[in-house]
């Protein structure tokens, strides 16, 4: 849910209750670089330093020789040719060169140890933190008095599947620490209350009876251990588990096989592929995991049943399984599409798609496994997910057409006027439905973000919905424009412009989910559309999905008629931030008057959190394009991220002057006011934004937070029931 | 006495073994359940120039997931090891600019890393323990772990090197056992079924290399002599909730500091009859980090989920101005 940050000004970025958060790296860099000379000085003292209190443990043992630790897995001692010994020699030569140099030396093998910030951003926002934070707080607090946890209803948080996994696993483990006095049932109830109110599928609910067995097993396990204080538990399942961490024919857990792969790759290649692996780690922790795990689970159960000749083994397997289950490592995932939380299945689908196309080994393995597993749950699930749509369609169709048609047909046959037009009508209506259906299917099969159409659309059947949509968009009637454009893309699913405009309308309406889904479709139809590529780059930057963002920004450059030459002809497998930034800097030098290049540079600097540079780029672009309201919004958002909320408000005001119905800018205004602690002000802006687009779920969350922060708890109910009239009366702007 | 506010929930605090005024604090957003983390390096600056701020921040490093624990290198004064909830172990060098940090990110654990502990004898290696049930041994010069210890059947919450023997360490796990290991041996040398509930922490007596303390969800701390481990040497009752960390004093052999989910920090002398010798209830949320300074006798530091870091002298009120 990082997508708020760039486009919408990043209140979510603010860490709960702190003022020092929004741009930690920027200020940190200043603080550190500003005093670097001092640090250096201090460092050089160290090797010979006697200023250290003489406590014995405080000696600086730089010259201590290192021998390999016996019993190491790598059973040869450290040889001087080992790559790490550079590091050590550096240590030893510290006296001659000064430690600072030594550490610089250490930095030199960049291939092996690239500074991590290149690989993964410390995403300071994540999900809407304040909402979540207070929510988790009440969960934790419930342990103080042992009061059953009664969660408040939550707005849609848009937690990713990975986030959910984290919450589930960690809260299960931690709850067992807080609620030591309580029964297992109580603990499960507490965790379940937390999870279900966050709309996290909880596996702990499912294995009710299994959990009891787990307790028995646990007892069994303790008994055996109590009797075995000796150093050799080799006959136990524990040892078995330890000795075969990557069991071969074993239904080795998926995580283990990943570990195995990691190990096999070796350090150097691991770092070469760090990008990919970090990405895949995310995916592991993310959405794909539950599905894999679900398959794993069934496989293990089957295995257990098959091997009942060895009760001990069976028990151990089972224990392992259930204990993992209790930790949420194995999930009985039944991810159903819930309209309110589209993110989960959508993200999953996207991630899966990205994984797959990324061609990473484990993805292949997964696919391979999936195929070999035959009736893959995925397909079933997909079918069941789509089921309701099919049903709906069938019902609707039979209701609307079959009967009508039959009657009509009968009547017409009776009248003897059977012929061209009516049959054609029916056929075309049927075809239309079929097309629609195929379109829906293609869309979800394509596994991109799934676009959700509005239920009732008065523009369906409009002679020229695209033109209408453009007109409405120009007038700033965004919600209406969305409907018209939906009608257009329903009619012409291959209309890239329709999808693109739809995406933009959603983005300006502060609905990122839909915006991304629409942009994905636009890109599918027209893979080289520069505006679409830029929009996707921005969206993924907001999501802090650096790899994806770089991919789209890179494509933007390579498809650009002017700058295509800047980039190497073949897109490398993995893009590095530094490379892409260089290409764009080159492009900016080539034509310093192209606002677009500066915009992309601004986006890129947001990606690396160099907000000052980003602001500079956007300001340059604004000199060239002073009437681009979305550009003003980007500038404002960046300034907000860089803890310049006051400046941000000026920028948003510019955007609103240019486009008064720019919902996102209204919401961003609210965020900036909230960031400055002016909650009452922020409420007015949120309400204004919501009056224009009541579907902006995030704005509802922000409103709720501001209401609580402004101690306007009396209005929370109006907020929860989304009573806009009431709110507007109370908070006029 | 000094207090410092951090933006996230405190998870661990450690005094520098080199400078009496420096300490590192590991923090995580949303109680470490979800969100980012940050490693702070703080300075106790008694400088009269800034009397209003008894503690200042030297540096801080952001991570994409919560930081559950940290430890200082025993060989180099600017090196800190952090245990990160995303399964990575990260090394930070304070003398380098933030862009160059972390200098290493060791990604081997498959689940949250819950603790790190630096070897005080060899000074070149450290241990990490994780919710993936394993303990890993690392040296600063190697890019991958030297060894993985995989015997525990549930999360390993902490490890502690023996203060005398370079190869011996103890681990505390949610499988209700503590284990003693010699890194030269293929398997653990001793399994101590120390509590009926999960064991969250363990530490060695700094003056008697056979004595170990374990802290458990059962609210008790038990002190064991590994030579006769059937009966604990002492059982310290007094905490009202799970005991999160236990730490032997570097200055007095029988003194133990502990912190608990009951929001207190307690000091114990396990040799005397009324073992509880100090109780501090200055935190307003779970207290999950406590440390005792090696360089200043009686100096304590604690952190908790109330986002505060306290540093105080034993016997003083941590909240006193």
Automatic annotation (TrEMBL), chain A:
Keyword Nucleotide-binding: no
Keyword annotations from UniProtKB, A to Z: Cytoplasm, Peroxisome, Repeat, TPR repeat
TPR repeat positions: 496-529, 595-628, 629-662, 663-696
Family to which this protein belongs: Belongs to the peroxisomal targeting signal receptor family.
Amino acid composition bias (Low complexity), ranges on this chain: 8-37
Localization, UniProt: Cytoplasm; Peroxisome
Residue ranges of the region described as Disordered: 1-83
Name of the molecule in the record: Peroxisome biogenesis protein 5
A GO term for molecular function: peroxisome matrix targeting signal-1 binding
A Pfam cross-reference name: TPR_16
PANTHER family hit by this protein: GH08708P (PTHR10130:SF0), PEROXISOMAL TARGETING SIGNAL 1 RECEPTOR PEX5 (PTHR10130)
Gene from which the chain derives: LOC113688128
Organism: Coffea arabica (Arabian coffee)
Biological process annotations from GO: protein import into peroxisome matrix, docking
Bias kind Polar residues: ranges: 47-60
GO cellular component: cytosol; peroxisomal membrane
Chain ranges passing through the membrane: none
Automatic annotation (TrEMBL), chain B:
Gene3D superfamilies reported in the protein's UniProt record: YVTN repeat-like/Quinoprotein amine dehydrogenase
Stretches forming WD repeats: 106-148, 149-191, 192-228, 236-269
Keywords: Cytoplasm, Peroxisome, Protein transport, Repeat, Transport, WD repeat
Subcellular location: Cytoplasm, Cytosol; Peroxisome matrix
Domain annotation EIPR1-like beta-propeller: ranges: 155-268
Gene Ontology molecular function: any one: peroxisome matrix targeting signal-2 binding
Superkingdom field: Eukaryota
Predominant localisation class: cytoplasm
UniProt keyword Transport, yes or no: yes
Keyword Transport attributed: yes
Coiled coil: none
GO biological process, one term: protein import into peroxisome matrix
GO cellular component: cytosol; peroxisomal matrix
Pfam families reported for this sequence: Beta-prop_EIPR1 (PF23609), WD40 (PF00400)
Family, per entry: Belongs to the WD repeat peroxin-7 family.
Protein name, per record: Peroxin-7
Source organism (scientific name): Coffea arabica
Upper classification of the organism: Eukaryota, Viridiplantae, Streptophyta, Embryophyta, Tracheophyta
Gene: LOC113731079
């Amino acid at each position: 849910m990082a997508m708020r940050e760039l486009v919408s000004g990043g209140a979510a970025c603010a860490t709960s209750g702190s003022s020092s958060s929004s741009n930690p790296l920027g200020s940190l860099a200043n603080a550190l670089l500003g005093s670097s000379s001092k640090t250096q000085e201090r460092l050089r003292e160290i090797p010979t330093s006697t200023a250290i209190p003489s406590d014995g443990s405080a000696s600086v043992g730089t010259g201590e020789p290192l021998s390999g630790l016996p019993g190491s897995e790598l059973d040869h001692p450290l040889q001087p040719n080992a790559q790490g010994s550079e590091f050590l020699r550096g240590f030893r030569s510290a006296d001659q060169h000064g430690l600072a140099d030594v550490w610089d030396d250490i930095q030199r093998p960049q291939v092996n140890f690239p500074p991590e910030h290149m690989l993964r951003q410390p995403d300071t926002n994540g999900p809407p933190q304040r909402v979540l934070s207070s929510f988790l707080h009440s969960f934790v607090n419930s342990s103080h008095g042992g009061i059953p946890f009664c969660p408040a209803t939550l707005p849609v948080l848009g937690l990713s599947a990975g986030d959910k996994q984290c919450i589930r696993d960690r809260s299960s483990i931690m709850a067992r620490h807080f609620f030591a006095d309580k029964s297992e049932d109580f603990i499960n109830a507490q965790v379940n209350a937390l999870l279900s109110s966050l709309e996290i599928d909880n596996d702990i609910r499912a294995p009710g009876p299994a959990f009891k067995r787990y307790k028995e097993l646990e007892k069994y396990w303790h008994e055996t251990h109590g009797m075995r204080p000796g150093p050799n538990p080799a006959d136990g399942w524990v040892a078995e588990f330890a000795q075969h961490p990557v069991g071969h024919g074993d239904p080795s857990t998926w995580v283990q096989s990943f570990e195995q792969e990691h190990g096999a790759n070796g350090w150097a290649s691991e770092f070469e592929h760090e990008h990919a692996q970090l990405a895949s780690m995310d995916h592991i922790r993310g959405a794909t995991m539950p599905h894999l795990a679900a398959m794993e689970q069934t496989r293990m159960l089957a295995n257990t049943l098959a091997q009942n000749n060895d009760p001990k083994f069976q028990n151990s397997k089972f224990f392992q399984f259930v204990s993992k289950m209790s930790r949420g490592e194995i999930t009985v995932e039944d991810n159903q599409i819930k309209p309110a939380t589209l993110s989960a299945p959508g993200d999953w689908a996207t991630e899966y798609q990205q994984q797959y196309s990324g061609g990473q080994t484990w993805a292949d393995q997964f696919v391979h496994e999936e195929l070999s597993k035959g009736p893959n749950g995925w397909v079933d699930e997909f079918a069941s997910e789509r089921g309701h749509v099919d049903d709906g369609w069938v019902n609707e169709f039979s209701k609307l057409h079959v009967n009508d048609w039959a009657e009509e047909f009968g009547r017409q046959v009776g009248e003897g006027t059977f012929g061209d037009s009516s049959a054609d009508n029916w056929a075309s209506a049927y075809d239309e439905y079929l097309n629609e259906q195929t379109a829906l299917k293609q869309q979800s099969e394509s596994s991109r973000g799934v676009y959700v159409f509005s239920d009732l659309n008065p523009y369906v059947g409009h002679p020229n919905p695209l033109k209408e949509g453009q007109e409405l968009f120009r007038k700033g009637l965004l919600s209406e424009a969305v409907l018209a454009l939906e009608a257009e893309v329903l009619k012409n699913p291959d209309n890239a412009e329709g999808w693109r405009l739809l995406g933009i309308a959603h983005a300006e309406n502060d609905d990122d989910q839909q915006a991304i889904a629409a942009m994905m479709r636009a890109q599918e139809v027209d893979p080289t559309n520069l505006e679409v590529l830029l929009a996707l780059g921005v969206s993924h930057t907001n999501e802090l999905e650096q790899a994806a963002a770089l991919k789209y920004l890179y494509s933007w450059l390579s498809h650009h008629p002017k700058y295509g030459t800047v980039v190497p002809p073949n897109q490398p497998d993995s893009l590095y931030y530094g490379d892409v930034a260089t290409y764009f800097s080159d492009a900016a030098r080539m034509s310093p008057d192209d606002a677009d290049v500066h915009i992309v540079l601004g986006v890129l600097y947001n990606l690396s959190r160099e907000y000052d540079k980003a602001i500079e780029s956007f300001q340059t672009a604004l000199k060239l394009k002073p009437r681009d309201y979305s550009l003003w919004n980007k500038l404002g958002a960046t300034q907000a991220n860089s803890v310049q909320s006051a400046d941000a408000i000026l920028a948003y005001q510019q955007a609103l002057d240019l486009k008064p119905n720019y919902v996102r800018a209204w919401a961003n205004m609210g965020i900036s006011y909230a960031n400055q602690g002016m909650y009452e002000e922020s409420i007015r802006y949120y309400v204004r934004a919501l009056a224009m687009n009541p579907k902006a779920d995030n704005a509802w969350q922000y409103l709720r937070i501001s209401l609580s922060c402004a101690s306007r708890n009396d209005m929370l109910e109006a907020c929860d029931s989304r009573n806009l009239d009431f709110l507007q009366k109370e908070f006029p702007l | 006495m000094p207090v410092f506010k951090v933006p996230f929930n405190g998870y661990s605090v450690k005094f520098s073994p080199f400078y009496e005024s420096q300490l590192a604090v590991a923090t995580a957003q949303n109680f470490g359940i979800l969100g980012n983390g940050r490693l702070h390096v703080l300075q106790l600056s008694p400088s009269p120039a800034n009397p209003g701020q008894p503690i200042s921040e030297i540096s801080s490093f952001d991570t994409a997931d919560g930081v559950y624990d940290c430890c200082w290198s025993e060989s180099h004064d600017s090196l800190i090891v952090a245990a990160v909830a995303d399964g990575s172990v990260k090394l930070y060098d304070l003398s380098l600019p933030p862009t160059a940090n972390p200098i290493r990110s060791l990604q081997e654990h498959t689940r949250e890393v819950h603790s790190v502990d630096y070897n005080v004898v060899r000074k070149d290696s450290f241990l990490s323990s994780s919710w993936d049930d394993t303990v890993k041994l690392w040296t600063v010069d190697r890019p991958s772990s030297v060894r993985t210890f995989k015997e525990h059947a549930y999360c390993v919450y902490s490890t502690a090197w023996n203060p005398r023997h370079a190869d011996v360490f103890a681990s505390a796990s949610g499988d209700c056992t503590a284990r003693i290991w010699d890194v030269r041996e293929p398997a653990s040398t001793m399994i101590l079924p120390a509590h009926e509930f999960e064991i969250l922490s363990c530490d060695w007596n700094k003056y008697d290399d056979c004595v170990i303390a374990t802290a458990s969800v059962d609210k008790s701390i038990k002190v064991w002599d590994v030579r006769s481990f059937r009966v604990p040497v002492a059982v310290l009752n007094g905490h009202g909730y799970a005991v999160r960390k236990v730490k032997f004093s570097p200055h007095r052999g029988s003194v133990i500091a502990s912190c608990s989910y009951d929001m207190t920090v307690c000091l114990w002398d396990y040799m005397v009859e009324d073992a509880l010798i100090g109780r501090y209830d200055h935190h307003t949320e779970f207290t999950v980090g406590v440390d005792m300074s090696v360089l200043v006798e009686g100096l304590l530091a604690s952190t908790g989920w109330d986002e505060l870091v306290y540093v105080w002298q034993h016997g003083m009120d941590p909240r006193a101005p």
